[in-house]
Design a protein that fits this description.
Distance between the termini: 100 Å
Number of helices: 18
Radius of gyration: 54 Å
Strand content: 5-15%
Helix content: 55-70%
Shape: elongated
Length: 555
Amino acid sequence: MKESGKTKIIGGNTAAVLLVVAAFLCLPLSRSTDIAFFDKLLNFIRSFIYIGLFAAWGVSIYKRVMQPAVRKYLTYVSGLMVMWLVIRDFKWRFVTDPDMLRKLWYSYYIPMLLIPMFALLVSMHLGRTSEYRHPSKMNLLYVPTLVLIAAVWTNDIHQKVFAFPKDALVYSEQEYSYGILYMVIAGWGALCAVLAFLIMLRRAWKAGLKDKLWLPVLPIAIAALNILSALLHIRLMSFIVRDTAVFYCLVFLGFFEACIGCGLIQTNSRYGELFSALKDMRAVICDDNYLPCFGDGENGIDADICRAAEKEKLMLSDGSLVRNMHIDGGHVIWAEDMSEILALREKLEETREELKERIELLKLEYERDKERRIIEEQNRLYSLLGNDTRKQIAGIEELTQQCLEEKDEKKRKDMIRLILLQGCYVKRRRDMLLTSYEAEEVQSEKLKNAFRESFLALKACGISGSFHVGEEKMTADTAEKIYRFFEEAAESLVFKAGYLNLAVSENKGIRVAVRTDMTEGSWAEALKQGFPETMVTTDEDGSLAVYYPEGRRWV
């Protein structure tokens, strides 16, 4: 197995420190020799080390840092550091034009102002989740920063940042004084840096990292000591700080690396600690040749199994599900303990079979209960039909028996006509009862058909007449009452009246009117016995019976 992640981090940090020491020694060595070649070579090596170091740090930041916003800002910082050193070396080695030298000098203030601002934006994300985004009003930091950069670049016009002598033929950095805007620029950069440091301290304190606070405090303390010694004109740090640009770049680099070391900036480089904390976790990170880089050897996964799981997930005999995910430079392989899930799945399968059997039994019980209810409902309907038409059926049986015994041909025909009338009623009455069982409302056409057939039977009994049924909607119960009312009137008038007219209309409610030529009150009395609400009026032409099956509306 390869070296652990912790060893790699220590080795990388040691190499970076050695490179900085080597670059630091290049400057006194170049000044200690009179050979121009070695002087230039050492200065080139020194610049190459620093530029390469900051560029490599930017690449490592892009690979390590998990928070998208922090990764973006730190990558910007790395690019600005490289830009600062490249501009500086280009200025001193290749440029001789005074105006170009001055513009390159002004360009120093691009990284000098942006790096502290990005440090402040990074501090807003310290200790936060990867999804955190700083408030949009923080983007207003760009406004003063860009304005101050523009002020430096336009210094030749107003000279509020650097003031040059009025009699100077060429503006250069060999002879100048500081203007009011320079103080603003220095103050703004210092303010951003101090705020970033204070926010970092607050985040670390809240996160319980008191024992690691010395890490980010150390580079800030060194920078503060250098500034203080410069203000007091004490050559305390002059031996160390021989290149201001490199010094402050290293201070910010050390500050951000300290935040990473404290855990305030989330990285994906602490796999060794992860696997140590999760001792029962069967997982391994391998290179492209499936040689383990991180993971516990005792709980690791065999290389052959790792290769087999590359195309699709693999289920092992012990109930573990092995997955293989490709990453840059290798693979992540982990085994999920599926034994409990498999046991639960088996139990669910058994439960499903039991439920399936119970459902089948319930279906059978439901079908039997349904059949029983259908039979009960049919019996109820048959009983209802029988009770409702019992009088007519009994009358038909009696008339049939009398008809068989009767010798008088005329009386026999009258009996047959009356049987026809009552049979017609029984037929239509039962039809209406079944209709009311199936639907709440009855179409007027069904009532018309019943009257049409009944009036044919009345005509056979010697009673002429007609009927009129409007298109009013009515309930099945109303239709049943109307037909029963008509049947009572017809039976009381058969062989007595000459005509019978019927009208069903809407007049302050559903209104049924029967008009006949009978003037005697006997038929009306018989009708009122079944329908007490009936109103009967008699005149010289006959009688009129009016009935409201739903009750009369007076409004």
